[in-house]
Design goal:
Length: about 290
Amino acid sequence: MSGPVVRPLSPAGGCVVSGIDLNHLDGEDFARIEDALNEHLVVVIRGQKLTPRSFVAFARRFGKPEPHVIDQFHHADDPNILILTNRRDAEGRPLGLADGGTYFHSDYSYLDVPARCTMLHAIEIPGGDAGTTFANQRAAYESLPTETKKQIDPLICRHHYGNRDDLDEKSRTAASPLSADQKARVHWVRHPLVRTHPHTGRKALYAVSGSSFGIEGMEEREGVALLDELKEQATASPLCFTPEYEPGDVVIWDNCSVLHRAPLIASDRPRTLWRITVKEAQPTLSP
């Protein structure tokens, strides 16, 4: 191969990288991918054939992977990989997480040290509307009036595992249900409403949809109303894009700077991906 070629994906963000094999990645080519992620926020790398071992090795170049709290769907070869699939075994038991995050959210925003990036390796894709939808939160913040930025820049949000818009655990648009043991591992955490990117220094709205349940110093209703107002602006269609996935794709996104939501796929359209989430180096706020 002659080296990676980066092509913008949409006016709202994202890029496609071609001409690269992640099994044979030198430092210079990795730097191109990392630069593309920092600039375009979502990177789609076509035509990859990865084993669990090579996928995890690639992820570690971005930082420390963190196994998902839903541990019953960890890959048998490596717990850093979460299996996303709507397939079931012969007895009808799910083989993976079928409806993970079908609402706008940012991964691991319910942890003190949130996700730097998440990556998917597409194993089986039905085509059509089977891709993830992303909303550019850097552009959302930059589009706000100056007075609004002054108002929200110092605010701190309270986060917990869940989707504040849907708390019914039986709903497909709620956060994936946890066992009692898994629920005991998640707690209330704090993050800035506006985050400064640790690698680029650029600001973005952070997790205004999903795990944010309130704002410090505001009554609950007032805080949620502000978050809902920001969410509506931050997920408007001009800020959103949905790459079409193909088997073999590796898709990486910047959790500091985008919201994302998974598609709702019918059970008769098999969809299987491997997912790894890499954490930031440190918490967003000092203890």
